Amino acid sequence: MGDAISVEELQLAARNHGMPLEALRWDVTPIGLHYLLTHYDIPDVDAESWRLEIDGLVDRALSFSLGELRAMPSVELAVTMECAGNGRAHVEPHVVSQPWLLEAVGTARWRGIPVAVLLDEAGSRDGAVDVLFTGLDRGVEGGEEQAYARSLPLAEVLSGDALVAYEVNGAVLPPQHGFPLRLVVPGWYGMTSVKWLSRITLLDVPFDGYQMRQAYRRRMHEDEVGEAITRMAPRSLMVPPGIPEFMSRSRVVETGRCEVVGRAWSGESEVVGVEVSTDGGATWFEAELDDDALGRWAWRGWRFVWSAEPGEHELCCRARDAEGNVQPLEPPWNVGGYMNNAVQRVSVTVA
Description:
By secondary structure, this protein is mainly beta. The protein contains five helices and 22 strands. It starts with 6 loop residues before the first helix and ends with a strand.
């Protein structure tokens, strides 16, 4: 990596955390190991007085307590969630922000109410085109004081699987994951899934708040409008084999049979293949895919048997999805360091 990490970036890194890659061994990530990004402060929410408001271009403005939501018929979805900045620390030149390596990901079982069900009860009026989700967390970003808020097209919400979740992995949402209620949007990068949700508003124009207009846009120059970041690009990660050297995290593996395992996902379409290289990407071999028992929106396991021979090796893995999207070998650069889905590289010494 190029420029040194700043004190400000270290402050962000201390508040947020990634998922240790060895946790890829679990189908569902223990919630304490699931990646976490908190833009502002974790709000202090009184669950007894909290309510979810639904307003704007609706036939009936609605207000729900947490108890009322929990009494409604619910669904549970296994969802892989990844930060749009995952891999940012690998791009050059250096991008100043949360310095993610590869660990900003996790898969959890979220229980709650489909947003489409709530909007059907409220009724959308003619002219509604956008659904705004507003959280209780507040801060200053880009010189603007704001509540964290993002929107989705109404058609996307009505046709998709987005839900407002009050449980994760069978337990009440912890404060850092959005208690008492959060949005979960399967297939989209994590910034879309607004935490500490307090209001859903139907609008007649696309929302133009900071998190839509300025943040989370892929641009090559600061003065560009850029392209909005939406669904997750395909990615595969492996459990680093063997044992680590403490500082470098390079791996030491014994000679002979070595089973390399990992997970792959894509928000664009289902994963249909994973390839593994043991020579830094010069040659590739097809890995064996596990079934997709967790469903469309969760990662898929894979495995590859490597006959490890003495020497230095660089292991890589890359996923491809049904639409033909494949991970690139080198990190793509943009101003925010977003959507860097270049192949993972793991240095291995076979003893």
